[in-house]
Amino acid sequence: MANVVIRLQTDPDTLPIYLSFQGDNDLYQREHFTGGLSLNIKVEDVDACYQKIRTAELPLTEDITNHKWGDRAFSLKDPLGNILYIFSDRELHEKYKYAVKE
Questions:
Q1: Do the beta carbons of residue 76 and residue 38 sit within 8 Å?
Q2: Cα–Cα 20 to 30 A to 46, which of 16, 58, 89, 96?
Q3: How many CA atoms does the CB half-sphere of 13 hold within 13 Å?
């Protein structure tokens, strides 16, 4: 199965929600993820969200990290085994700028 990302946005003034369906592609696999649904949740302040999650002592599947593809993010599993990828935008690394069309 190919990886598919769906952007949901009802109004240009609201933050979008991204749904990512991931297959067997090893490039996108996380250590504890074997396929299924991944919810990409864009927030204003990912560090504040991260602190709330850490305070609640929920287990992470990826610690907070700056990614060259233009975000700062962390992820965790929900009780059903879905991945929640929580992120804020960051400056895109030069090698990825060719792929972005605004």
A1: no
A2: 96
A3: 0
